[in-house]
Amino acid sequence: AVRRVFAAKGRPSTNPLIIHVADAKAAARLAELPPIAQQLTDRFWPGALTMVLQRRPDAGLAPEATAGLPTVAIRAPAHPIARDILRAADRPIAAPSANKSGQVSPTRAAHIRAQLGAAVDLIVDGGSCEVGIESTVLDLAHGAPAILRPGGVTREALEDVLGPLAEPTTATRQHSPGTLPRHYAPRARLRLNATDIQPGEAYLAFGRTAVTAELSRNLSPTADLQEAAANLFRLLVELDQHGATSVAVAPIPDHGLGAALNDRLRRAATR
């Protein structure tokens, strides 16, 4: 079953999957939870926080799910349908984003049908994703806590609980899903931090702007980072669907959810 996930996505076998559970009690059956993990689950679970933890020898997980690593990335999702499925299955579920590896993450069922088609047996339509971008991945397995992938839980919120976070090393990044240099990429080329429009470019705006293009979308006219995060992947898909080959992307503040937005855009722009 796990191998079929990798096959459907065309995902490299070295890229571990996030294991989804219903709650902290279920997580403790799979991994060693340090004391700070309880603080984090109390504050952020269910929700957009994934923790990388030392895998228990008796966890019973397929080695492919963790890419053969001694660690495991675990999250308790907040969506009520996901939680119902986890409770009904009564077992951990390996669940990456439902897209072809490296391409734009889906935020609607229609995006999944377009990308994966017959590669999956069933699509459960739970409506549009509320957060839009993927979870924050926090390393708790290699000393001081460090963010391996910014996401739906901000650095500021984590540091409010844990204090200053360490910076990840190249070695620890391999323990995190979603850290490939090129990822979340549309067909169109992206030009980041653009303050003008070049000939032939579409425009992905943020906030009020006087810049115009024949084909344009706005992540958030009110410069709301939460709204922008919810809209990012959907609007990249729309620009692709409307034939954009090159997109100028407006500057986005690099704090709060903006850090995760800029991370996704940098990976999407890599060629």
Structure description:
By secondary structure, the chain is α/β, with parallel strands linked by helices. The chain has helices at about 1-10, 25-30, 35-45, 80-90, 110-115, 155-160, 170-175, 225-240, 255-270; strands at about 20, 30, 50-55, 70-75, 95, 135-140, 145-150, 190, 200-205, 215-220, 245-250. A hairpin with a 6-residue loop joins strand 6 and strand 7. Helix 8 runs parallel beside helix 9. About 40% of the residues are buried. The model has no long low-confidence stretch (mean pLDDT about 95).
Concise account of the structure shown:
The chain is of the alpha/beta class and 271 residues long.
Which SSEs are present, and which pair or pack?
Layout (H helix, E strand, L loop, with lengths): L1 H8 L8 E3 L3 H5 L2 E2 L2 H10 L4 E7 L15 E5 L4 H10 L3 E2 L14 H8 L19 E4 L6 E4 L5 H8 L7 H4 L15 E3 L10 E4 L10 E3 L6 H17 L4 E4 L7 H13 L2
Parallel strand pairs: 1-4, 3-6, 8-11, 9-10, 9-11
Antiparallel strand pairs: 1-5, 2-3, 3-4, 6-7
Helix pairs in contact: 8-9
